[in-house]
Automatic annotation (TrEMBL):
Pfam families: Lipase_3. Residues 1-15 form the signal peptide. This is Alpha/beta-hydrolase. It comes from Gloeophyllum trabeum (strain ATCC 11539 / FP-39264 / Madison 617) (Brown rot fungus). GO terms for biological process: lipid metabolic process. The keyword Signal applies. Residues 108-248 form the Fungal lipase-type domain.
Length: 324
């Protein structure tokens, strides 16, 4: 099973030390300047979720036996897998575990398997549909989400909710950490909102996802911001095209919380910034169609400033080719 090598999985360091940002520092209005993210913050907040998002690409057998190579070794042995599922197709692989090193329940989702047509079909159903109000009982009116993402989420939602609740009860821990890459990031975001609405308010929940595509309209982005607040971060890597789709002219908008790897080399990120607001000031369509070079000002520092002429699929799957 191929594993996604994400840029932030490598030893990440910045060109120069920067003040450590607290999660609240990621919340900015759309006109604010970006701010450097320190290597300490990357190591503390992002590297472990990134390793778990890699592990989600392994088979259920490899996950439950904790024999999935480098990412399992990097996380360490103190992880007890409580539930694993998926079929690597219409139902992406996922697992729920007790991460004993952080004393939290971990939920991770696989992204699209590019070699499986059923997996790809989850992405291409991009029309917007109404949000499932049974699974999101506190959602307001007018919320529209990506049809394929919601259908994929619905296939595991009940099992995920029951599994996380069971894990919390059996372990007694009070923290849930959620992650995923690509399609898995979209599912993880929906899971996070669902869990926040349904779990006991005393349970703390943090979500760090990678290569997140846009998942719904402005009302959906508002719901994510309102429900998850500063405990939601989505990492984007250089010229990765996935965070720029579906495009804004189809009514899609990102939630807040972007942290962007602006520059990297063979050893990892050399410039990482916390980005302002839900989207940059220059619209996605405008930037994709008119700019083949860097955008002016602050917009060039975040995924919204990516150009259609300079996309990199390698930036989506990671710094290097896929490995086994």
């Amino acid at each position: 099973m191929p594993l996604a090598l994400l840029a932030c999985l490598l030893p990440l360091s910045l060109a120069a030390p920067a003040p450590i940002l607290t999660p609240s520092a990621y919340r900015r209005d759309n006109s604010a300047q970006t701010a450097a993210v320190s290597d300490a913050t990357i190591e503390t907040d992002f590297v472990r979720p990134a390793q778990f998002s890699r592990i989600a690409y392994c088979s259920s057998q490899a996950v439950t036996s904790w024999q999935c190579g480098a990412p399992c070794a990097a996380v360490g042995p103190n992880v007890k897998v409580l539930q694993a599922g998926g079929d690597d197709g219409l139902i992406p692989m996922y697992f729920i575990a007790h991460d004993q090193d952080t004393d939290s329940i971990l939920l991770a989702h696989q992204g699209t398997d590019a070699q499986n047509i059923l997996s790809i079909s989850n992405d291409v159903q991009f029309l917007q549909v109404g949000l499932n109000t049974t699974l999101f009982p506190q959602a307001g009116d007018g919320i529209k989400v990506h049809d394929g993402f919601q259908k994929t989420f619905e296939r595991t939602a009940d099992g995920v909710l029951a599994g996380v609740q069971s894990a919390l009860n059996s372990t007694g821990v009070k923290k849930v950490a959620i992650t995923g890459h690509s399609l898995g990031a979209a599912i993880a975001t929906m899971d996070a909102v669902m869990l926040k609405m349904n779990l006991d308010p005393s349970i703390s929940l943090s979500t760090v996802v990678f290569g997140l595509p846009r998942g719904g309209n402005q009302e959906w982005a508002n719901l994510v911001d309102k429900t998850l607040g500063t405990d939601f971060t989505h990492i984007t890597n250089q010229n990765d095209p996935v965070p720029t789709v579906p495009p804004q002219f189809l009514g899609y908008v990102h939630p807040q919380g972007e942290v962007h790897i602006a520059k990297a080399n063979a050893t990892g990120a050399t410039e990482t910034v916390a980005c302002p607001g839900t989207e940059n000031e220059v619209s996605s369509l405008y930037s994709m169609l008119l700019y083949s070079v860097s955008l002016p000002g602050d917009c060039q520092n975040c995924s919204e400033g990516n150009s259609l002429f300079h996309v990199s699929v390698a930036n989506h799957i990671g710094m290097h080719e896929l490995t086994t």
